[in-house]
Structure formats: structure tokens, C-alpha cells
Specification:
Elements (H helix, E strand, L loop, with lengths): L8 E4 L10 H4 L3 E16 L5 E17 L1 H14 L11 E10 L2 E10 L4 H7 L1 E2 L5 H6 L1 H4 L4
Antiparallel strand pairs: 1-3, 2-3, 2-6, 4-5
């Protein structure tokens, strides 16, 4: 689903996390962030040097970024631009979806970005599975976090 709601959280797992390549472009929208996980997804490292998640069996580790209601629309415009997402465009790189993230013994509904389903074949053909679900650890220690599947 891509409509705007009262959700204040955005789940990130790669370059949009604090200290990530694109963090400076979204940092001003974020009031606070916490470590979180999502289940039912697989994480991949792409040859371009960034991650992708697909629906699957696994857990992905990342951060929930919290945004004030008044700034949510502007924040989503910024995130969508970075993630190359356009509503109803099958050529988008990513797709903005609603998902549930677990943190601090709680579950929060959040927006998240999955690699577009039309690009699944590309991920499976060229990506490296990050089997422990932690992309930050993978880019620091790739052989410890990935294996052929």
C-alpha cells in the first residue's frame, strides 16, 4: 500500500540509516530512531553497493526512524526520491509498503522500501544474500554474513 496514513515510522536497513550514505538527506526529518527488525523478508547486497529486501523467509535488522506527523508528507517525498519510488510506476527501483517492525518488545507499523517485484530476477541473479539480515555488518565483514543459497 502506498497511501499516506498516521504512521510516523519508516523502517530503514541500509544507506538511509544513521551514518549511512543518504542519512544527511533525511536526518532533519527524524525526531529519534531505534533498532528494529522485520520478519518475512530476505536481505541482499547488490553489485551497485546498496541493499535490497524481498519478501521471503528471514529477518532483517535495521532502524525505525520516527517522523512528526506534520513532516511525514515531506519526509516521504524525500525518501521516495532517494529510493527511486513513484506511485504506480512499475519502473520504480523500490516500492513503498506498509510493514510491521519489532523493537523494544513492541511492534510498530511503518513504511518500508522493498526492491520492486519487477526486479526480483535481477536481485536473485546478481545479489549476494545477507543471511544474518544485517547489512551494516555485511559491508564491514562480508564473508561472515553471507553465504550461497
Amino acid at each position: 500500500m502506498t497511501e499516506l496514513t498516521d504512521s510516523f515510522a519508516i523502517f530503514t536497513y541500509g544507506t538511509l540509516q544513521p551514518n549511512g550514505r543518504y542519512w544527511p538527506q533525511v536526518e532533519d526529518f527524524v525526531t529519534h530512531h531505534v533498532a528494529a527488525t522485520i520478519n518475512g523478508y530476505t536481505l541482499w547486497h547488490l553489485p551497485e553497493g546498496y541493499p535490497a529486501i524481498l519478501e521471503g523467509e528471514g529477518t532483517v535488522h535495521g532502524r525505525l526512524l520516527f517522523v512528526e506527523r506534520a513532516r511525514l508528507h515531506a519526509a516521504l517525498i524525500a525518501f521516495d526520491r532517494i529510493e527511486d519510488f513513484v506511485v504506480d510506476d512499475p519502473g520504480s527501483l523500490y516500492e513503498r509498503v506498509r510493514l510491521f517492525a519489532t523493537h523494544d518488545d513492541a511492534t510498530t507499523e511503518a513504511f518500508g522500501y522493498l526492491y520492486h517485484p519487477n526486479r526480483r530476477g535481477y536481485v536473485l541473479a546478481t545479489g549476494v544474500p545477507v543471511t544474518d539480515g544485517d547489512w551494516n555488518r555485511h559491508v564491514k565483514h562480508p564473508t561472515a554474513c553471507a553465504q550461497e543459497i
